[in-house]
Amino acid sequence: MYLPLGEREFPHPATVPDRFSRRVVGWSITDHMRGDPVADALTTAAATRRTLDGAISHSGHGAQ
Question: Are the CB atoms for 37 and 14 separated by under 8 Å?
Fold first, then answer.
């Protein structure tokens, strides 16, 4: 997913939702589509929730 903001500006967000509370617990936004924003979003989510034990991940890869 990307967010067109202007000419040649396409930030790519990565979010980690908590399906139980329906809140975003981790997020990151960059100007590229490499693995870093996803890892950053997971790190933020782990810090917010104190652990990711028992977490289930879905990448959405190929959903474009």
Answer: yes
